[in-house]
Amino acid sequence: MAEVRVEVDGRTLTISNLDKVLYPRTGTTKGEVLDYYARISPVLLPHLAGRAVTRIRWPHGTGDGSFFEKNAPRGTPSWVRTVEVPTTGSRGESRHGDTLVFPVCEDLATLTWMANLAALELHVHQWTVTRTGRVRGADRLVVDLDPGEGAGLGECSTVALLARDALAERDLATRPVLSGSKGLHLYADLPRRLDPDDATALAKEVAEELTAAHPKLVTATMTKARRTGKVFFDWSQNAGSKTTVSPYSLRGRDAPTVAAPLSWDEVAEGADDPLALEQLRFDEVLDRVAERGDLFAV
Q: Could you tell me where the beta strands, DSSP code E, fall in the chain?
């Protein structure tokens, strides 16, 4: 059956190619992707709410090419909420008067529509928009801990604990998330909204502090040649134009891994034993949420 019409939250959607394999290595189909997003939606949607969504789509599966999509595509249903924002993504000011029209995903129908377009990865900014579409400042800080060659999740876990302490000294409580790719993401809610430039400066300050204190383990430099055996503390994800994959989003890797929230106990175990942590697949994440709820919300 090439197409089926389904009702989702009172919206009628045409779903196509449910048997199409989107993860060739594991044989994971579009139907399984749609099922995951439907089942994970109660904990995923709160992390997307109020944020413009950039999608990475793999129309022919992860064994083929992908593309970023910021603007809502032609044919977007009229009921999908969209927001027009300046290309700078900050302060509501556009450098050249250019804008982008992003979709905002706050319900299962919109999430299903995105997944049906093979939008496996859902990326969001750290700033939000109001119900009327006005761009607000960043309400959280994010750090991407990216291991260089010769480093892995063990080193990322050690750096995550150091970053947690450095951010705690600034009265910021941090939550860890497996990136679903190679490393870890750290999030910290901000006590007040910041311009993305100020949030970036704060993250960079922490990155440089840890690099100075642990030069053999941490680098704040983007140059890949300087990352060997170290963890790149990527502070730049806080820029107004940058996005980070949302907690609970799938990743477009060989296997259907997920950006999966962790407990700090799990991170500590990963620091003690490099084999204690590994990226999690969507079925594992569904089981974790059923058993433990949304660790990101704890």
A: 3-8, 11-16, 21-23, 28-29, 53-57, 67-69, 82-86, 99-103, 119-124, 127-129, 135-147, 174-178, 184-194, 218-219, 231-234, 244-245, 257-258, 260-261, 280-281
| H/E stretch holding 41 | helix 30-48
Alpha carbon distance 10, 163 (integer Å): 44
Tell me the C-alpha to C-alpha distance, in Å, between residue 255 and each of 61, 65, 66, 67, 252: 11, 15, 15, 18, 8
Res 88: pLDDT: 60
What is the secondary structure of 218-232 as a DSSP string? EE----GGG-TTSEE
Question: Distance (Å, rounded) from C-alpha 135 to C-alpha 138?
Answer: 9
Average pLDDT over residues 201-208: 98
- What pLDDT does residue 93 have? 39
Answer yes or no: are the C-beta atoms of 125 and 242 closer than 8 Å. yes
- Per-residue DSSP letters for 123-173? EE-SEEE-TT--EEEEEEEEEEEEE-TT--HHHHHHHHHHHHHHHHTTT--
∠ Cα 171 139 223 (to 5°): 85
- Average pLDDT, integer, range 257-281: 97
Closest CA to 68 of 242, 283, 228: 242
Name the band, by pLDDT with cuts 50, 70 and 90, for residue 77.
Answer: very high
Q: What is the dihedral of CA 87, 89, 93, 99, to 10 degrees?
A: 30
Q: Measured between alpha carbons, how far is 129 from 240 in angstroms, rounded to an integer?
A: 13
pLDDT in the model for residue 97: 55
Structure-block tokens of residue 203: 């993250």
